[in-house]
Structure formats: C-alpha cells, structure tokens
C-alpha cells in the first residue's frame, strides 16, 4: 500500500505568490493532519480533519493560510500571499481512528522556500 | 495542555547502546510514540506503547514507561551508523485522542 503522498517535494517561490501544497492520505484513513517543521519552532500542528471536516485549525498561523479536504483522498494547504517566514517543511499525516489511540503516518514533506 | 520534553543531542559509538529519554506532563495520555526522522525525510513510526504497559521490546528497540514519573525512554541496542537521525517522542492528548504532541526531537549521532 502506498504511504502518504505529498506534492510537490520542493517549492521555491517569491514573496507575495500563492503556494498550494497537496496531500493524498493513506486509503481508508479518516484523519488527516498538516504540520509545519522549522528549526526554531520544531514540529507544529496546523490543522486536522476528520472525515473531510476540519476539526481544529487553532494552529493555523494567520488568515493567509487555508486548508481544504474536498474528498477522502485529497487535501490542500494554501498560502496566499506567501512570506519568507513561511519557509519550512510542511508535512501531511494520516491516521485511522482506533479506540483510545491514534497512530499517524507521515508523508515525505514539502520543502517550501519563499524568497 | 500536554508538554513533551526531550534532550536535544546524544552521541554514541557504533555498537554501544543508546538511550533517548522523554518526559511528558499529561498523566492521562494513553499512547506514547517514538518516531524517527532521517535527513530530508518525513517522520517514520518506530514503535509505540500503551499506557498500561511498562515495557515493550521490538528487535533492537526497547521502550520503557514509568507512569509515576511520566518518563519514557527508547533504548537502541547495538547502535549502528544507520541509526543516526532525529528521534521524536509523542503523546496523545487526553482531550481529542487524535492529536499528538511532539517533543523537540533528540538528534542521535553514531560514530564509527
């Protein structure tokens, strides 16, 4: 079974441009998570979905960030307009809810550089 | 809320055992995880332990859980250079089991 798939793997853009990151979760998983990783702040949870519905977006930095999950096999994280401080590695993870627990499986990440 | 802490760096020689430590604050966490991140890659699940267990062994990996002290450790026996990576401890939150709180990660460097 394929793991979590993310695209693109690398993105370089200029400040002010719109950036869209994509994620395909593991088939059958009902939770999807977006994380951001930087040297300064470590791994931060941005938002997560359950059955395509956003449950907690308290980690989204500001209104420039938005995430959607139009169906069970696809999610996007959009930054508009992008800023240099958004440069980071963005991870998508998915999981299948189980009683009392949750094991998240991560994608390879998208390394975003905003110039 | 839950807070998970780890030391930042550990250096060992090849063939030695490595012990990576983690502390957490929420005693109601039911699952505790260890993830490994190699350079340029995502986080790979290594193992996890349920809170009603004290120890779990999986080949070269041994996880020890001290619930009283809220302390978790990962022991890697016969450490190899390929084990060099960042190791993250994570705990689920008591509200919303699906959210995990990650530590800052421990960078393990294995020298030949």
Describe this entry's structure for a reader.
The complex is a heterodimer of chains A (115) and B (112). Chain A is mainly beta. Chain A contains no helices and 11 strands. In chain A, β7 and β8 form a beta hairpin. The model of chain A has no long low-confidence stretch (mean pLDDT 93). Chain B is mainly β. In chain B, 0% of the residues lie in helices and 56% in strands. In chain B, the strands form 2 sheets. In chain B, strands 2, 4, 5, 9, 10 and 11 form a 6-stranded mixed sheet that branches. In chain B, strands 1-3-8-7-6 form a 5-stranded antiparallel sheet, with no helix packed on it. In chain B, β9 (85-92) and β10 (100-102) form a beta hairpin. The A-B interface holds A 4, 31, 42-43, 45, 48, 50, 55-56, 91, 93, 95, 97, 100-109 and B 30-31, 33, 35, 41-45, 48, 50, 88, 92, 96-100, 102, 104-105.
Write the layout of secondary structure elements.
The complex is a heterodimer of chains A (115) and B (112).
Chain A: E1 5-7, E2 10-13, E3 19-24, E4 31-38, E5 42-50, E6 53-56, E7 65-71, E8 74-79, E9 88-95, E10 105-106, E11 110-114
Parallel strand pairs in A: 2-11
Antiparallel strand pairs in A: 1-3, 3-8, 4-5, 4-9, 5-6, 7-8, 9-10, 9-11
Chain B: E1 4-6, E2 9-13, E3 18-24, E4 31-37, E5 43-50, E6 55-58, E7 61-66, E8 71-76, E9 85-92, E10 100-102, E11 106-111
Parallel strand pairs in B: 2-11
Antiparallel strand pairs in B: 1-3, 3-8, 4-5, 4-9, 6-7, 7-8, 9-10, 9-11
Derived structural class of chain A: mainly beta
Number of E strands of chain A: 11
Task: Measure the end-to-end span of chain B.
Answer: 41 Å
Q: Please give the number of β-strands of chain B.
A: 11
Number of helices of chain A: 0
Low-confidence stretches of chain A: none
Number of helical regions of chain B = 0
Order of helical and strand elements of chain A? EEEEEEEEEEE
Biggest chain pair interface: A-B, 23 and 21 residues
Class per helix and strand makeup of chain B:
mainly beta
Strand % of chain A is over 45%
Label the overall shape of chain A.
globular
Residue stretches of chain B low in confidence (pLDDT < 50, at least 5 long) are none
């Amino acid at each position: 079974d394929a793991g979590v798939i993310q695209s693109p793997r690398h993105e370089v853009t200029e400040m002010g441009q719109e950036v869209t990151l994509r994620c395909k979760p593991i088939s059958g998983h009902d939770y999807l998570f977006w994380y951001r990783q930087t040297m300064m702040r470590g791994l931060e949870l941005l938002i997560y979905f359950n059955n395509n519905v956003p449950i907690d977006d308290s980690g989204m930095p500001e209104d420039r960030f938005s995430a959607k999950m139009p169906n069970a096999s696809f999610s996007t994280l959009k930054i508009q307009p992008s800023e240099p401080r958004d440069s980071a590695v963005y991870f998508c993870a998915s999981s299948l809810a189980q009683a009392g627990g949750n094991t998240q499986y991560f994608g390879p990440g998208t390394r975003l550089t905003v110039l | 809320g839950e807070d998970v802490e780890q030391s930042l760096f550990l250096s060992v020689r090849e063939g030695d055992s490595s012990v990576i430590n983690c502390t957490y604050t929420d005693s109601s966490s039911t699952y505790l995880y260890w993830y490994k991140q190699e350079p340029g890659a995502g986080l790979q699940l290594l193992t996890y332990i349920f809170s009603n267990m004290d120890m779990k062994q999986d080949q070269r990996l041994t996880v020890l859980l001290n619930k009283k002290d809220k302390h978790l450790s990962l022991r890697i026996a016969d450490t190899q250079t390929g084990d060099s990576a960042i190791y993250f401890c994570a705990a689920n939150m008591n509200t919303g089991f699906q959210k995990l709180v990650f530590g800052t990660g421990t960078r393990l460097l294995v020298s030949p």
